[in-house]
């Protein structure tokens, strides 16, 4: 049989939430045949798509049984699962986006893969327009509050690069912006002494995979003395809107950051 030109993969398994949300945003959700247990956005995905993975691990047997022509994952943390799937002769694509630019590039790449390049470009143009509008509003603001973002509690891990960039766009100063560029979690470890020395005015937390335990966090030595705690500016953000490197952090996640960091701003913009 002669080869043909196809319109991209027809049976896609998404090992994390963001490719699922991207494909739905592109109107290509019918290609999805399996998703992660941590998928929250969009809510209808979990109602209609079978769960085949957690985050670190997944059922190779279940995934293979779906006969996917592409499996999409995220980050070095899924390296072992990706290796197992490749050993089963499956097509595997692992993205490793860490910045806002890389998130936008992934959306464009995924759009091209499924033959929706123009729709992906329109989607990204919309995100960029929002980011540019906010950048204009917060540029040069005086008295930017010092912000600490906690991604995990033991060991203590501060926010990844896209989170740090969104904090800056929202009008804050990430106290560990230098750490945020570390691609590996161990490069973003901080100590209680580091946090106390930075003396953040706003303490944001989103513990990936479990609820933020405020009492346990504040019971750690030295944290009750930081400005954020004394002024009661401690807030939890849902992981699905800030730690998901896809549409969520660029929309609902960013809007929540603005609400917490720059409540005086008129944001989000009114749709045209």
- Detail the poorly predicted runs: none
- Average of the residue pLDDT scores: 95
What coarse outline follows from CA principal-axis ratios?
globular
| The first-level CATH class name of the largest domain | Alpha Beta
Q: Would you report the number of β strands?
A: 10
CATH superfamily of the largest domain: Nitrogenase molybdenum iron protein domain
Helix content: 40-55%
Terminus-to-terminus distance: 51 Å
Q: Hey, roughly how much beta strand do the residues contain?
A: 5-15%
Overall domain count: 2
Kindly name the structural category.
Answer: alpha/beta
CATH hierarchy: architecture of the largest domain: 3-Layer(aba) Sandwich
Tell me the major beta sheet: 5 strands, parallel
Tell me the number of helical segments per DSSP (H or I, 4 or more residues long).
13
CA gyration radius, whole angstroms: 20 Å
Strand order of the largest sheet: 3-2-1-4-5
- What are the secondary-structure elements, in order, as H or E? EHEHEHEHEHHEEHEHHEHHEHH
The fold-level CATH name of the largest domain is Rossmann fold
In short:
This protein is α/β, with parallel strands linked by helices and 272 residues long. It has 13 helices and 10 strands. The protein has 2 domains: 85 residues, Rossmann fold, CATH 3.40.50.1980; 133 residues, Rossmann fold.
């Amino acid at each position: 049989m002669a080869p043909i030109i196809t319109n991209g993969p027809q049976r896609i398994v998404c090992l994390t939430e963001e490719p699922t949300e991207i494909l739905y945003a592109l109107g290509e959700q019918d290609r999805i045949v399996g998703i992660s247990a941590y998928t929250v956005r969009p809510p209808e995905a979990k109602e209609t798509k079978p769960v085949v993975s957690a985050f670190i691990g997944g059922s190779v047997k279940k995934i293979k049984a779906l006969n996917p022509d592409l499996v999409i994952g995220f980050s070095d943390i899924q390296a072992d699962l990706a290796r197992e799937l490749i050993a089963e002769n499956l097509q595997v694509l692992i993205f490793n986006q860490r910045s806002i630019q890389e998130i936008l590039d992934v959306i464009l790449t995924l759009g091209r893969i499924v033959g929706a390049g123009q729709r992906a470009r329109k989607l990204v143009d919309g995100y960029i327009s929002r980011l540019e509008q906010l950048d204009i509003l917060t540029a040069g603001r005086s008295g930017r509050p010092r912000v600490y973002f906690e991604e995990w509690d033991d060991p203590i891990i501060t926010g990844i690069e896209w989170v740090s960039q969104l904090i800056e766009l929202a009008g804050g100063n990430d106290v560990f912006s230098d750490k945020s560029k570390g691609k590996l979690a161990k490069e973003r470890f901080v100590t209680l002494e580091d946090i106390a020395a930075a003396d953040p005015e706003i303490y944001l937390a989103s513990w990936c995979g479990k609820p933020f335990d405020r009492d346990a966090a504040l019971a750690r030595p030295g944290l009750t003395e930081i400005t954020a705690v004394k002024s009661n500016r401690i807030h939890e953000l849902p992981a699905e809107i800030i730690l998901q490197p896809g549409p969520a952090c660029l929309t609902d996640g960013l809007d929540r950051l603005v609400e917490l960091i720059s409540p005086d701003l008129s944001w989000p913009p009114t749709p045209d």
